[in-house]
Amino acid sequence: MDFEYSARTRALRERLDAFMAEHVYPAERRYFEEVAADRWGPPPILEELKQRAKAAQLWNLFLPDSDHGAGLTNVEYAPLCEVMGRVHFSSQIFNCSAPDTGNIETLIRYGSKSQNARWLPKLLDGETRSAFAMTEPEVASSDATNIRSTIVRDGDDYVVNGHKWWISGVGDRNCELIIFLGVSNAEAPKHNRHSMILIPRNAPGVEVIRPLTVFGYDDAPHGHMEMVFDNVRVPAENMLLGEGRGFEIAQGRLGPGRIHHCMRLIGLAERCLELMCRRVKSRIAFGRPIGEQSVTLERIAEARILIDQARLLIMKAAWMMDTVGNKVARTEIAMIKVAAPNMACKVIDWAIQAHGAAGLSEDFILANYYAHARKLRFADGPDEVHRNQIGRLELAKYEAA
Q1: Is the pTM higher than 0.90?
Q2: CA distance 186 to 241
Q3: Cβ(182)–Cβ(195) under 8 Å?
Q4: Tens digits of pLDDT across the chain (401 residues)
Q5: What is the Cα–Cα distance from 373 to 394, expressed in whole angstroms?
Q6: Omega of the bond prior to 235 within 30 degrees of 0, cis?
Q7: What gap in Å lies between CA 68 and CA 384, rounded to an integer?
Q8: C-alpha separations of 270 from 238, 328, 347 in Å
Q9: CATH topology of domain 7-124
Q10: Domain 247-396 annotated CATH 1.20.140.10
Q11: What fold characterizes domain 128-243?
């Protein structure tokens, strides 16, 4: 495997690094101040930076095999994800943030011409945002076959009912589309019972109950909402691909998104390691710099090892997705989904420890980043599900024996 970056990737990464240094890092404090002033409104600085990113042709970089994006492979896009991951909100600046990336890919891959004509242009332009409604509070949603919200045909419409939570993106006032997973045929085989349907955010019966928090962070204006869908009526033409094909769509949707999350975590961990190193070089404890004390040196070394290991594993998964497809790469995709968030949690925890009590405060980004990394041990499936899959696939190699 050759992971040497192409000339195109190197050039894009240099431009992205320069854009981050010139525009994004200086705007970080202003972004959080504007969010604090208006929790669920799009921060003005974000909209300014999006226009600059468009002008710099750093836009929709995530779309492989599509005329709508930069045409990058997963291997080419991964290092760009790493750069964006250094600032938690920056992927939005380049229209490369979840859940929009997964939803856009879903529409391009599975949407009809009329569905795409209605929803894609504004999403690709960054004018609107979207959400993906799957998880439910009443069932163990890590097993998606448990999902029991309903999508029932009624003449020329479908009627949708359900109770969902951890629905990311709905908090943003620019959110106009929800992709909803529910049961359309309870009598069908287990993996053919569910469908996905497109629901306008302003449809009657779509109600937000409350924003949920992660260790106290509400992640405004993106948000993670608890919602009720009460007899929501949408046209039959809003059904994605066809009844009973929800799991087929889900499998096509999840692979690339996991790569994006995991590579952004590499950038996040790199930034936290950098903050840790700067802190321990500038603080004195017990007569000498903290950075000269053995436990600190050991943690810095271990952090470097863990980050580089995770990066190489992610690049292998990206390479396999590009060369042999998501299905063959499913072991590697599952492995990075476990490895990257656990690595990031550990590195950030060490960085918090190096900052002392200040690391727990909002004076630094570390507590916020820890909450984000810990959350990703559940997003797209919990660690336990992926470990079980990895174990089963490993054992399958020995079935003949």
Answers
A1: yes
A2: 18
A3: yes
A4: 445 678 888 999 999 999 999 999 999 999 999 999 999 988 999 999 999 999 999 999 988 767 787 889 999 999 999 999 999 899 999 999 999 999 999 999 999 999 999 999 999 999 999 999 999 999 999 899 999 999 999 999 999 999 999 999 999 999 999 999 999 999 999 999 999 999 999 999 999 999 999 999 999 999 999 999 999 999 999 999 999 999 999 877 665 666 889 999 999 999 999 999 999 998 888 888 888 888 999 999 999 999 999 999 999 999 999 999 888 999 999 999 999 999 999 999 999 999 999 999 999 999 999 999 999 999 888 999 999 999 999 999 998 66
A5: 27
A6: no
A7: 36
A8: 42, 30, 9
A9: Butyryl-Coa Dehydrogenase, subunit A; domain 1 (1.10.540)
A10: yes
A11: Butyryl-CoA Dehydrogenase, subunit A; domain 2 (2.40.110)
Q: DSSP letters of 237-277?
A: GGBSSSTT-HHHHHHHHHHHHHHHHHHHHHHHHHHHHHHHH
CB neighbours of residue 142 within 10 Å: 13
Q: What's the token pair of residue 317?
A: 């998964």
Counted residue by residue, the chain has a size of 401
- The beta strand positions in 63-126, using DSSP E, are none
Structure tokens at 122: 């504004």
Tokens of 245: 């094909």
Determine the residue type at 190. K
Domain ranges of the chain: 7-124, 128-243, 247-396
Say how many C-beta atoms besides its own lie within 10 A of residue 383's C-beta: 16
| Distance of alpha carbon 317 from alpha carbon 256, whole angstroms | 10
Tokens of 305: 């090892």
User: Do the beta carbons of residue 310 and residue 262 sit within 8 Å?
Assistant: yes
Burial of 14 per CB tally in 10 Å (0-12, 13-18, 19+)? exposed
Q: Per the omega criterion (within 30 degrees of 0), is the bond before 99 cis?
A: yes
